[in-house]
Design goal:
- Helix 2 packs parallel to helix 4 and helix 4 packs antiparallel against helix 5.
- The termini are far apart.
- This protein has 441 residues and is α+β, with helices and mostly antiparallel strands.
- The protein has ten helices and 27 strands.
- It has four domains: 105 residues, no CATH class; 109 residues, no CATH class; 105 residues, Neuraminidase (6 Propeller); 85 residues, no CATH class.
- Helix content is 24%, strand content 36%.
- The radius of gyration is 23 Å and the shape is globular.
- InterPro entries: Kelch-BTB_domain-containing, Kelch-typ_b-propeller, Kelch_1, SKP1/BTB/POZ_sf.
- Keywords: Kelch repeat, Repeat.
- This is Kelch repeat and BTB domain-containing protein 13-like.
- Pfam families: Kelch_KLHDC2_KLHL20_DRC7.
C-alpha cells in the first residue's frame, strides 16, 4: 500500500475526537464517554474496523447510553454492539419503555422480540442424600409477572453445589467441584446447563481438586481461583478454555484464599479478599498479562467484605456492621474511575443473608430470603427499595445469577410453585420417619 511510505494519511469521514478515542483504547485505557464521544467512537470503530474499540463500547453500555448505542450502532453496522445494546434495553425495558419510543419501529420490535434475563437461584445440594434429590436439586427462577418463584430445571443426580464453583458464561450455567458429604470429598465431574436448549452436559474438572473457591466466567474461559483441598487454603488458579475443553494453570493469587467474593465490572475480573485484621483488599486479574494487581485496600475495624457486586464502574462491597452485626450490613462503594471509596449512608437489612444473594441487572439489584424477594434501584450510589415479591421458601446457602430462558423452554418446563413442593417434601419426611420407626420395632 502506498500509504506505508507516506508521512501523513488523511482520513475522510472520521472525526478527530473519534480517532483520539481509538488511540486511547489501543493503549489499554478504558475511557468513560459522553454522548457525543460515543457517536464519534462508533463511527470510527465502524469505518476503521477497530474491534477493541467495539468491545470497549459494549463494556460501557448502561441505562444512560443504551438507546443511543443501539440506534447509532444499527446506523453504522456494528452488529455486536447493536445486539448487546438491544439485550441491555430488553433487561431494563420496564424502566426504559417510554424512552425507547424514540427508536425506529423496527428497532423497538427487535428489542421486544429478545428474551430478558431472569433472576435464578440454586441451593446447596449434595448427591449423598438420595431422599432429598427431587426437592433440593431444583434450579428456580423468579417470574416477575406473577411475582413468584418457579422451577426451571433439576440438577443432575451426581452434581453438587455444596462449596462448588458456580458461574454463568454465554448464557450457560457451569458447576465445578463441590463436595459429596461432610468428608469434603470433591466431585470430579463438572456440569454445564444450556439455558437455550434446556440440556445438561459434563466436562472434566481442574487438575487440582478444590472446593470453596471462586469461579468466574470471562471471554470463553472459566477461572477457578483459590479454594481448599483437604481443608488447606490454596492460591493456585486454573483456567478452562470452553472452546477447546482444556484446563491450564494461570498466575497464582497473591496469597491462599477460600470462599472469596468476585465480580465483573466493565468486563474486568475483580476479587475481594480479606485478612483477620479487618482489611478488605480488591484485586484485579488482567488476562492479557496473566497477572494480579492490588487496586485498593479498605480498612474497617472488625469488619470485612462478605459479598461484592458490580454496577457500571462501581464495585459494591457488603460487610458486617458494628460489633460484627450481620443483620445490619454496611455497604462501601469503590469507583474504578476515580479510585475512591464511598461509604453508603445507613444500614441495609441482611435478615437470613438476603444481601448475599444480590445480583445486578441494569440499574436494579435483586435479593431474597424466605420472607420476601426485594428489588432495589441504584440511584446516586444509593440502593432504594423498589418493589417486593414473594420470598424463596427455603433455608440454607444459595447461588444466584442471571439467565436468559427462551419462551419455548418456559412453556414446556414444570410450573410447580415452591410452596407445593414443600408439602410434597413434608410428606416424604413423614413417610421416611414412619418407615424408620417400623424398622426399629
Amino acid at each position: 500500500m502506498r500509504e506505508c511510505d507516506q508521512e501523513e494519511i488523511h482520513l475522510k469521514g472520521v472525526r478527530a475526537r473519534g480517532f483520539v478515542i481509538v488511540l486511547s483504547v489501543m493503549r489499554g485505557e478504558q475511557p468513560i464517554l459522553d454522548s457525543d464521544e460515543i457517536v464519534d467512537a462508533i463511527e470510527c470503530a465502524a469505518f476503521l474496523q477497530v474491534e477493541p474499540l467495539a468491545k470497549h463500547l459494549v463494556n460501557i453500555i448502561n441505562t444512560d447510553n443504551c438507546l443511543l448505542m443501539c440506534h447509532t450502532a444499527a446506523t453504522y453496522g456494528l452488529l455486536d454492539l447493536f445486539h448487546s445494546s438491544a439485550l441491555f434495553i430488553r433487561d431494563a425495558y420496564c424502566d426504559l419503555k417510554e424512552e425507547a419510543r424514540c427508536l425506529p419501529k423496527e428497532l423497538v420490535e427487535y428489542t421486544e422480540s429478545l428474551t430478558p434475563s431472569m433472576y435464578v437461584t440454586v441451593g446447596t445440594h449434595s448427591p449423598a442424600v438420595e431422599m432429598l434429590q427431587d426437592f433440593m436439586r431444583t434450579v428456580c427462577y423468579l417470574d416477575e409477572d406473577e411475582k413468584d418463584w418457579k422451577v426451571l430445571t433439576d440438577l443432575p443426580t451426581n452434581a453438587s453445589t455444596t462449596m462448588a464453583g458456580v458461574a454463568v458464561l454465554d448464557n450457560k450455567l457451569y458447576i465445578v467441584g463441590g463436595v459429596r458429604d461432610i468428608s469434603n470429598k470433591v466431585v470430579d465431574t463438572c456440569f454445564c446447563y444450556d439455558a437455550t436448549t434446556d440440556t445438561w452436559s459434563t466436562f472434566t474438572g481442574p487438575h487440582q481438586p478444590r472446593y470453596n473457591f471462586s469461579l468466574v466466567g470471562h471471554d470463553d474461559c472459566l477461572y477457578a481461583i483459590g479454594g481448599e483441598c483437604e481443608r488447606t487454603p490454596m492460591s493456585s488458579v486454573e483456567v478452562y478454555k470452553v472452546s477447546t475443553g482444556v484446563w491450564s494453570h494461570a498466575a497464582q493469587f497473591p496469597r491462599p484464599v477460600a470462599g472469596t467474593p468476585s465480580a465483573k465490572a466493565l468486563n474486568r475480573i475483580f476479587i475481594c479478599s480479606w485478612k483477620p485484621v479487618g482489611a478488605t483488599d480488591i484485586y484485579e486479574y488482567i488476562p492479557a498479562k496473566d497477572e494480579w494487581v492490588l487496586l485498593s485496600k479498605l480498612v474497617r475495624p472488625h469488619s470485612y467484605g462478605h459479598c461484592m457486586v458490580a454496577h457500571r464502574d462501581n464495585l459494591y462491597v457488603m460487610r458486617n456492621g458494628p460489633c460484627d452485626d450481620f443483620l445490619r450490613c454496611m455497604i462501601d462503594c469503590y469507583s474504578l474511575t476515580t479510585g475512591q471509596w464511598t461509604a453508603m449512608p445507613g444500614h441495609y437489612g441482611n435478615s437470613k443473608g438476603a444481601l448475599f444473594t444480590a445480583v445486578v441487572r441494569g440499574d436494579s439489584v435483586f435479593t431474597f430470603n424466605r420472607n420476601m424477594t426485594l428489588e432495589y434501584t441504584i440511584e446516586n450510589n444509593t440502593w432504594k427499595p423498589k418493589r417486593e415479591m414473594k420470598g424463596f421458601p427455603r433455608i440454607g446457602s444459595f447461588w444466584t445469577f442471571l439467565l436468559r430462558v427462551p419462551r419455548t423452554t418456559k412453556q414446556s418446563m414444570r410450573r410447580d410453585i415452591l410452596s407445593n413442593n414443600y408439602k410434597k417434601f413434608s410428606n416424604h419426611i413423614d413417610h421416611y420417619q414412619s418407615s424408620f420407626l417400623q424398622c426399629i420395632d
